[in-house]
Prior knowledge:
Blueprint: H1 2-5, E1 12-16, H2 21-32, E2 36-41, H3 44-56, E3 61-65, H4 71-85, E4 90-93, H5 108-136, E5 139-144, H6 157-176, E6 182-189, H7 195-203, H8 207-214, H9 227-234, E7 245-248
Parallel strand pairs: 1-2, 1-4, 2-3, 4-5, 5-6, 6-7
Helix pairs in contact: 2-9, 4-5, 5-6
Amino acid sequence: MTTKLFDLGGKVAIVTGGNGGIGLGMARGLAGAGADIAIVGRDEAKSNAVVTGLGQGGTRAISVVADVTDEAAVIAMVERVRRELGRIDILVNNAGINIRKPPHALDTAEWDSVIKTNLTSAFLCSRAVYPAMRDAGGGKIVNIGSMMSIFGASFAPAYAASKGGIVQFTRSCAVAWAADNIQVNAVLPGWIDTDLTRRAREEVAGLHDKVLARTPAARWGASTDFAGIAVFLSSGASDFVTGTAIPVDGGFSIMG
């Protein structure tokens, strides 16, 4: 019974930004639970390498090159996934960027770029998959927020605004689509060892030591730490869980 709760056999998952970092950790977790995977990103070579790796493990996977900030591209991406993989049951909205500047140094184009990539893309992708999930009798959407959904940071005004918006967008979708048996939840990663945060450690003095000092688990997170939460929120185990924002942060957010 417990195994079946987490079984994703026969399900199809889209993971945006799934060719690296947290998205890749989630994609591998979903594949390990039996889901077919569509890796969506702009770096075709990187996505193809991930798809090859998943295929070697027995997963049916495809790579889709798409700019998830572009409405037409998102619609075309969803149509291709439905055509090639047959259905859409799971969407992980993971695509994201950051531009580290204080508010007074951030220009409008930089603000717009972060908001479009982190927040507008989640709206476009969620809206685009909704008909497929509704027609299939249900679905799961997992939106990737951040510790910046909770805390402020002088160097991340647009990023924090986008990730705070992700939590409220998650709640709106959860309420709107509950009658369609679509559960929508957010994951709030703590400080995870990814390409994005490696750049942060280069740009923000003392960040590495500050993170370790505040994190009870006394380490940076790894992409593999997101496999379990991805499977839980994408499976029947979470059918009565919706509108939540779950930290995966080694205890960072509970420290005073």
